[in-house]
Amino acid sequence: MNGRGFFYGLLFAGLLAAPVAALAASDQPYVNLFGGNTFFGPGSHLDGGGTLGLRVGQRLGQHLGIEWQVASAFARLQDQNKTSANQYSGSVIGNYYAFSGASSPYLSLGLGASSDLFNQQTGRGTSVMGIFGLGYEQRLGDHFGLRLGLQDQLLFDTPQPQGGALNNIQVTGGISYFWGGNDNTRAFPIIAPTRSEP
Fold this sequence. Notes:
about 200 residues, mainly beta, eight-stranded antiparallel β-barrel, two-stranded antiparallel sheet, 1 helix, 10 strands, about 55% strand, elongated
C-alpha cells in the first residue's frame, strides 16, 4: 500500500470510529475547532506557520476519551521563493483525563499520517505519525468548553534527504461544542396510581 492509500484508509477508519465511539460512550460527543502554530523540527527545511484543525470526539467514561483529528499547518520551504509547503494530517487520538469534573488536564496518545513537502526534489510524501500530547479542558456550561493543547508529532520515515524521524511541536487553543448526552427526563411522565379511600 502506498503512502496516499494509507493516509486515506486512516481517515476512513477515523470517520467510522467516531460514531461507533459515540454510540458506546457515556458522555456527550463534541466537536472542537482549534487553531495555533506548528513548529517544524530541525532538518525539515520548513518555516512554521499557523495551524487550523477540527476534532470530533467522545468521552468514554470519567477518565478516558477518543477523538478523530484533522489539521493543516501553513508551512513554507526555506528557499528563495518561500514556496508553500502546507502540512495535512489526520489521526485517531486517545485521551486520559486526570479529573472527571468540568475542568481537567489530560494526556493524549495517537496514531495518524502526515502529508508533507520538505523540498522540491523529493516532492510531497506521506509519513506515519505518532502523537504524544498534554492539554487542559474547561467546560463552560452544558454545551461549550475551551481547550489548550501541546502535541509532539513524531513523523516516521520522512522523505527528507537524511531520512529518519522528525519531531514537530504543535501548540493550539480552541472552542468545543457538546451535544446530546445523558438525559434523565422522560417524554411521557409516569404517574403513580392513586389510592381511593374506602
